[in-house]
Structures are given as C-alpha cells and as structure tokens.
Specification:
Elements (H helix, E strand, L loop, with lengths): L1 H18 L4 E6 L4 E4 L1 H11 L23 H16 L6 E6 L5 E9 L12 E8 L1 H37 L8
Antiparallel strand pairs: 1-2, 1-5, 3-4, 4-5
Length: 180
C-alpha cells in the first residue's frame, strides 16, 4: 500500500510538472500507448484534428490510445533505434525528427527515453517522452521572408549592374578629375 501510494504521489508530481510546461509533452510505453500527456498536447492535437481529416469529437489524443494514430510508426521506431544506439555508445539519448500530419501540418518532435530504475548504463527502455512543436507557421513565415528577399534581390539587379558599369568606366579613365 505504501509503495502504491508512493508511485501515485510521483505520478501526481509528474502530472503537475507537465501541466505547467509550455511545450506539448506526451509520454508513451514501448507499444506506443499514451500513458500521460499535458494540456498543451491535448490542445495542439485537438487543433490538428479540426483540419480536413478531423475525427469524431476532435480528439486525436487520449490515455491508452496509440500515438501511431497521430504519428508515423516507422518514424517513432527509427527514433527509438537511434536512442538505443546512442545509449549503447554512451552518448546523450535523444532523437529528433520532423514529420507531417495527415492535415498537412509540420511537426518537430524530440524523443527522450524513459528507462527502468535499474537500467544504469543499459540501453534498455520502458517507454519514451515526446515533445511536440507545430512548426508549420514558422516555416511558412520563413518561406515568405525568403520570397521577399528573392524579390528584393531580383529588383536590385539592374541598379547594381548600372553601378558596376559606372565603376568600370571610372577605372577606364584613371586620369579623370576627382570632381568628375
């Protein structure tokens, strides 16, 4: 009973901590079942569900649901393999990937392992934590900025060419008066 109470207290502490995070966080077991998520994740996935491929009730996320209904299983499996390799090599166990949703949104995801308490130095996982960031808007803003720079560059080409020709003409007449 004490052990159960202790585990419940730890779970409540973790849930309280996660609820205050500004990022969307989802904790999954190795089978991809969602064990815990914060309000930010719920809101983010609810917004994603409102798109052209919306599901009934607008809920893509829920306790016990599969993360694979939201994210590609192959990408998560690959990220897990990367983490296991990094753990085995003694490196920081973290994996990053970018994916698109069925509705066309672009997500940046960072995965870190959840390891059993007795897994010191082992490449053993009991689950993983995903932090999810919707980067669609920032990518679109970068694209608009790049387009504006491209337009500015193209518009300035003729003026720059004229200045370059004028400088070349000046070099052709080295004995020209400074006022000229």
């Amino acid at each position: 009973a004490r052990a159960k109470a202790s585990v419940e207290e730890e779970k409540n502490r973790l849930a309280a901590l996660m609820s205050e995070l500004a990022q969307a966080v989802v904790v999954c077991n190795l089978d991809g079942r969602i064990l815990l998520y914060n309000n930010r994740a719920r809101l983010q996935f609810k917004a994603l569900a409102q798109g052209p491929t919306s599901v009934a009730g607008g809920a893509l996320i829920g306790l016990g649901r599969s993360i694979y209904s939201i994210l590609e299983k192959s990408q998560i499996e690959h990220a897990r393999e990367v983490i296991e390799l990094r753990l085995g090599a003694g490196k920081t166990p973290i994996a990053n990937f970018t994916t698109t949703t069925r509705g066309g949104q672009l997500l940046r995801i960072q995965m870190v392992p959840v390891r059993p308490a007795n897994a010191e130095g082992e490449a053993k996982l009991s689950g993983y934590v995903l932090t999810v960031e919707n980067i669609t808007r920032s990518i679109e803003e970068e694209e608009r900025r790049d387009q504006a720079l491209h337009t500015l560059t193209q518009g300035s080409r003729a003026s720059i060419a004229n200045i370059r020709a004028a400088v070349a003409n000046l070099l052709d007449y080295p004995d020209m008066e400074p006022e000229m």
